Task: inverse folding
């Protein structure tokens, strides 16, 4: 199996964009695309998930910091919400990577695939738990406990 990926850092929707942009190199058997193996593809997917996990961690730290400053610094609530949204976006990226790897692992079983799926699955479970813990709201029962008596 050969997977073609662009060798340059320009966003293109498909090989057609590569050809239409005049970037196809007829002297190169793959037209100036970089050839990678399925194992490399899975490793790159796992690395992409780890990178998203790092951004997720940063976003949660920022959200917590802004949460702690609520009421003290104007705009903290809005900043907290934006950082929580960024954390959710990064969590979704890890989830999508997991789903993609899972699909590939069902089609092409190998030790590399199994390792990549297992790594991303563990990462996804940890991030999901962190996200839920950070977004936990006090229950109504606990809120009543903190109300001042009338």
Result:
């Amino acid at each position: 199996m050969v997977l073609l990926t662009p060798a340059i850092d320009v966003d293109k929707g498909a090989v057609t964009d590569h050809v239409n942009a005049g970037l196809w190199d007829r002297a190169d058997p793959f037209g100036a695309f970089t050839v990678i193996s399925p194992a490399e593809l899975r490793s790159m997917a796992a690395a992409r998930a780890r990178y998203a996990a790092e951004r997720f961690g940063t976003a949660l730290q920022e959200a917590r910091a802004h949460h702690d400053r609520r009421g003290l610094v104007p705009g903290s609530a809005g900043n907290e919400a934006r950082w929580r949204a960024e954390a959710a976006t990064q969590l979704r990226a890890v989830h999508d990577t997991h789903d993609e790897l899972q699909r590939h692992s069902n089609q092409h079983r190998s030790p590399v695939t199994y390792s990549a799926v297992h790594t991303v699955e563990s990462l996804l479970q940890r991030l999901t738990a962190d996200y839920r813990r950070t977004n936990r709201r006090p229950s109504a029962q606990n809120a009543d406990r903190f109300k001042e008596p009338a």
Q: What stands out?
A: The helical segments are 15-20, 38-68, 76-107, 111-134, 140-145. The chain has a mean pLDDT of 79.
